Amino acid sequence: MTIQPAVVEALQSLLLGFAFAGLLASAFELFTERRADFKLLQAGGFAAVASVPVVIFSAPFLILRNTVRGRQSDGRPISFLMLAGLSAGIWSLVSGRVVLDLLHLLGA
């Protein structure tokens, strides 16, 4: 049984996307002592513009964190959790692909 190279590359993108999202959100929280959240975009001005890359690349982590918290506190249905996981996975696949392309471009 062999695995197609495209499948391996997609899996790498997915895993790298989730790992980079968690790393970026955790680094943001470490350096700013604020929780990374989608509300960063509502700050207005330069802070909102500067937080766009952080929110874009940490979105899979933020989606899953908010969804799990909502499930625990609000009792949201499991179908909502599955749909949020699917959207976070797709977002992670795309952002992981961008990170992989940037790493290949930089020659790492």
Main beta sheet: strand number and arrangement?
none
- Helix amount: over 70%
Return Rg in Å: 16 Å
Unreliable residue runs: none
From the N-terminal CA to the C-terminal CA, the straight-line distance is: 31 Å
Helix-strand sequence: HHH
Number of strands: 0
β-sheet strand percentage: under 5%
Number of helices: 3
Structural class: mainly alpha
- Mean pLDDT over the full residue set: 91
What distinguishing features does this structure have?
0% strand; 3 helices; mainly alpha; single chain
Task: Describe the model.
This protein is flat. With 108 residues, it is mainly alpha-helical. The protein is built from three helices and no strands.
Write the layout of secondary structure elements.
Layout: H1 5-32, H2 45-74, H3 78-106
Concise overview:
With 108 residues, the protein is mostly helical. The protein has 3 helices and no strands. Helix 1 packs across helix 2 (45-74), helix 1 crosses helix 3 and helix 2 packs antiparallel against helix 3.
